[in-house]
Amino acid sequence: MKNTEIRKPYRMEDFLRPQLFQKVAQMVHFHWRRNPEDNTLVNAPNWAFCFSAILNILFFACNGWDIIGHLCFGKPTNQDPPVLSITIYFSIRGLMLFIKRKDIVEFVKDLDRECPRDLASQLEMQMDKTYQNFWKRYRFIQIYSHVGGPLFCLMPVVLFLLTHEGKGSPVALHEQLLGGWLPFGVRKDPDFYFLVWFIDLVCTTCGVSFFVTFDNLFNVMQGHLIMHLGYLARKISDLDPRKSLTNEVQFFEELRLLVQRQQLLNGLCGRYNEIFKVAFLVSNFVGAGSLCFYLFVLSETTDVLIIAQYILPTLVLVGFTFEICLRGTQLEEASEGLELSLRCQEWYMGSRRYRKFYLLWMQYCQRTQKLGAFGLIEVNMVHFTEIMQLAYRLFTFLKSH
């Protein structure tokens, strides 16, 4: 594992690095650069979003045409429900990144402004732990995308080469990477198999890149917010109310800075939730549907290759859903840490003025910062249980029919 001991100050760019496959495929959606004039972090314009949007439009237009033809005209469909549901899951994340790109850039700029620059401040804020957590996460995503992704993409090719009956037979659905409709019947023509597979490969790379970018931004933002909240909680714990009796002016000046810091962090937490709340609401339930389809496919087949193709996405989907809910719980706990630090104070030893202020401050600290969506859901471990229950209910419904 890479040595994460701080030897020189970290920069925000160290947390926002793309994966290798994104660089090779030119699917880096945010190009972070330093403005030489004021050293602020900026996002350089790029065409990755536009190219990815065109691919998504074409992919879903083809799938939509296939579904409409099946429903309205009775034509045979070539849909792979598990693959279609997971592509919707990825595309929702990409759509949210595109819609909220300006908010994301501004939020990252604000985090960069609050990020300590010198080594001593970073050690005091325990930024080394934040980077260690980021690096572990980065390596996990690196393994998933560079090992699991190619295995998933190559499995249909292996099935095609081993099980296809001959040039006179159409390409079966399980031998295709994504499924759906393509013009002139090329998807089912064995002569065009590798051309179609390459098109599907590009679309898959686009979707995985959306997912990886979303995941990186979500986790980096959350990690920095928790770092700042933890540091503020320690500062509140170090506050000695007795000083309000001996040097009231200086004491309340320090207190004012702490409260302003808390207001700033609460504002950042609110903006953080605003960026991702639509994705939480839609993609988590789409994820439950995708998980249901994967379980159904795994329960209905005895083919080892098909099981190998779908078992990894199933486990990864459960893992990522669990972690997003865990991240929400961690943010709640970090926010609750401010109230806990305040409760542990010997507030009764302070001046009368501070004791009055303490009551107001305690009420303000009880406003725990949470991740949610329009008051309909709260992203925490309880929500993870609800998603798993929903997936199981959908699975039993499909099995019963």
Automatic annotation (TrEMBL):
Annotated localization = Cell membrane
- Sample GO molecular function, one term: olfactory receptor activity
Q: Keywords for this entry? A: Cell membrane, Membrane, Olfaction, Receptor, Sensory transduction, Transducer, Transmembrane, Transmembrane helix
Q: Which Pfam families does the record associate with it? A: 7tm_6 (PF02949)
Q: Which InterPro entries match?
A: 7tm6_olfct_rcpt
**Main localization of the protein?**
membrane
The biological process GO terms on file are: signal transduction
Q: Mind telling me what this protein is named?
A: Odorant receptor
